Amino acid sequence: MKFKTIEWRGDCVRLLDQRALPRRACYIVCKDASSVAEAIQKMAIRGAPAIGVAAAMGVALAAKRSRTLRPALFRQEMERVCERMRQTRPTAVNLFWALDRMKKVWDQRLNFDVEEMKERLEAEAIRIFEEDREVNQKIGENGKVLIHEGDGVLTHCNAGGLATAGYGTALGVIYAAWTEGKRFRVFVDETRPLLQGSRLTAWELSREGIPTTILTDNMAGWLMSKREVTLVLVGADRIARNGDTANKIGTYGLAVLSKWHGIPFYVAAPTSTLDLSLVSGKGIPVEEREPEEVTRFAGVRVAPKACRAINPAFDITPHSLIHGIITEKGIIRRPFGKRLKRMKEE
Ligand code: MRU
Q1: Per residue in 237-261, pLDDT tens?
Q2: How far is the CA of 314 from the centre of ligand 1 (A)?
Q3: pTM score of the predicted model
Q4: Would you state the pLDDT for residue 110?
Q5: 139: Cβ–Cβ under 8 A, 6 or more apart, which residues?
């Protein structure tokens, strides 16, 4: 990608502040874990895989800054940092997955040399980052067969380079097909209320020279009825054992519309987004955000003061509406249950 969403710099983490895009590409330098946690919570960095990588780097930073040489105290400090990270955002399971990986590093040893443990934690955070880049690449390679010359591909929110350490999941598939020489159009849902589609997805696609058309979320059905959309590709924040998928609010509506119009609807996600502990999407916690994100637009109030607003940030698409899930290990088709489990554990 022509930009770096997140970067480990040895003594700090540099993040592209996505709240300022597309007006300005400015960076935040986080020197400690609490500033990384704040960046995740306030959505300077967002997107399931990216927040997992950021949280892991936050823990590695905390380790580096720790002054204790006593393993028990060090462990307590790290546990506290993990707890703070866990409180940042509830839906994307990649956050918890990455923190569990970091925790495993100190949990595997009862006694350890603290200085050596710091190095191990730094190495693990960098590994999580590198692996995400490789996984993105594989998702792209596995999914590109789904895109055909002349297609109209609709995507929602941002599942691209800005949401990952690499070139993205749903957008990774688009980049891989484009690089192979296929020519098609991409439709980008604006994605109210925070506009991750028009602000972020359109920004990165247009920088890669891919023809991009933005629509407001309520236009998708009309475009589908006119056969302008021929494929829907979205990312995921958490996928339950049966294939039910949490993704940015509005995804469920797109899946219903796709079914009605007979348009294939695919989810692209790394296996780290699979949460096998949940039987179905009913168990996925859905983040509820400030109502002001809905009642205001570009900082200006656009709704009467007396009215209430709701703001669930995600919705759950039932597995029955999903044609397939594109992972780094291949495309899984319905019935998902056993296949997802096998793939995760492979
Ligand atoms: O609230 P956000 O911007 O973190 O939501 C992001 C999404 O819903 C993405 O589609 C999802 O995380 C997949 S990113 C590869």
Answers
A1: 999 999 999 999 999 999 999 999 9
A2: 9
A3: 0.97
A4: 81
A5: 169, 172, 173, 268, 269, 270, 326, 327, 328
Q: How many residues does the chain have?
A: 346
- Spell out the domain ranges in the chain: 6-137, 142-345
Given this model, what pLDDT does residue 134 score? 98
Q: Does 109 score more than 90 pLDDT?
A: no
- Determine if ligand 1 sits within 6 Å of the CB of residue 91: no
Fold (topology level) of 142-345:
Rossmann fold (3.40.50)
Region of residue 55 (left: phi > 0; alpha: psi -120 to 50; beta: else): alpha
- In short, whether 157's Cβ falls inside 6 Å of ligand 1 is yes
Q: Which of 142, 323, 136 is nearest to 231 (CA)?
A: 323
Query: Which tens digit of pLDDT belongs to each residue from 168-194?
Result: 999 999 999 999 999 999 999 999 999
For domain 6-137, give the CATH number.
1.20.120.420
Those residues whose C-beta lies under 8 Å from the C-beta of residue 301, and which sit 6 or more positions away, are 295
> Ligand 1 mean position to 112 CA, how many Å?
37
| Ligand 1 contacts CB of residue 169 (under 6 A) | yes
> Is the minimum distance from the CB of 172 to ligand 1 under 6 angstroms?
no
CA of 159 to the centre of ligand 1 (A): 6
Query: Which residues carry out catalysis?
Result: 237
Alpha carbons 72 and 62: distance in angstroms, whole number:
15
Q: Tell me, in angstroms, the distance from the centre of ligand 1 to residue 227's CA.
A: 26
Neighbours of 266 (CB within 10 A): 21
User: If you ran DSSP here, which 8-state letter would residue 102 be given?
Assistant: H
Percent of the chain with pLDDT over 90: 95
Neighbours of 115 (CB within 10 A): 10
- Regarding the beta carbon of 236 and ligand 1, being less than 6 Å apart is answered yes
- Residue 293's pLDDT is what? 96
CA 115 vs CA 61, 103, 119: distances in Å: 13, 16, 7
